[in-house]
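User: Second chain of the day. Same drill as before.
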Amino acid sequence: QEVEAMIKATKDEERREFEGIEMVSTASPEGAYTLNERLADKRESASTKYLQKMLKKAKMEGQITPEQVAENWEGFKELVEQSNLQDKALVLNVLARISDPEQREQEIRNLSAAYKELADDILPQLRYSKVTATVKNIGHTDDEILALVNSDSQALTLEELLYAANLVKENSKKVEILKIADKNFPQDLRAKNNIADICYKEGKYAEAASIWKELAKKNGVELVMAPDAVCCEDLDFGTMTIKEGAKIEVYPSNAIPANMEGLDAGPEAQKAFAEAIKGCKTILWNGPAGVFECDDFTAGSRAIGDAIAQATAEGAFSLIGGGDSVACCTKFGLTDKVSYISTGGGALLEAIEGKVLPGVAAVKGE
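Assistant: Same format as last time:
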């Protein structure tokens, strides 16, 4: 009924167009395979007739693409995994060892006799026809989007408003549009983040930092920024040495002279970082605080490393990720004072984020 209502609704919507229906008809896997085929076929036939009649009555056209799954083994596994069945791991392990479909069907019948939840709750859910309607959303043109920003911004989606900001050249106009997006969609942080990015590129560092701190706070994150930096006017990055006569001075992070480069965390930043690490129970360090390869700029990274080692000694779990961070630990003699070291940096962060790593997927055969 929900799909039928959605399909019919597209007739009266200017920017939505019904394209077709995909239908999967299944049978539960405890029956004989030939029986399941007949059952799935009957469900497909009955569902197709109903959908054809519905489209004809609504005076609509669209392709119906049917598919049969005679033995919904994957659906069975998913439902068992999500269930409260006491011995579900054992059940799935037993069945996974059986490759012959007919033998597996018999074993499912045997298990259904022993586990009432399988027979009464799980298997009935696998006897269905799943209907998916494809409806194309027709977006606004660039000119329409820009016109609606001023006349009726509520008619635009968040993505359209973010896109609109990229259609104008002046940063002031971009910020105006992004402020509208933030007002209309206050739960999404992208518009405000883009405003901060514009401020940063314009050299309005304090304003950008203020916005980012606000966004971090909304996400329950304490963002610790370096208030000062150790700077130098002439570091040879080839040899990692300071050229003769070059000055090393400390400046506020937002007031570094144009002829100087920030090459390490300053004394106040070192204290702030160490204080933030103190008392933590789980620590991930990814990236040094400065050009630690040069001995004149190791203090920031050393302060972080020492604080992590101290926290680890007090019971914290510390994970060091990335070649440079590992090199820091090695240089400072901290490799045996942290919990775990990974040479993967970016890959480590992606793994924690939940992304599939190609190498891991290959090993798993995925």
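The longest strand covers residues 16-26.

User: Great, on to the next one.
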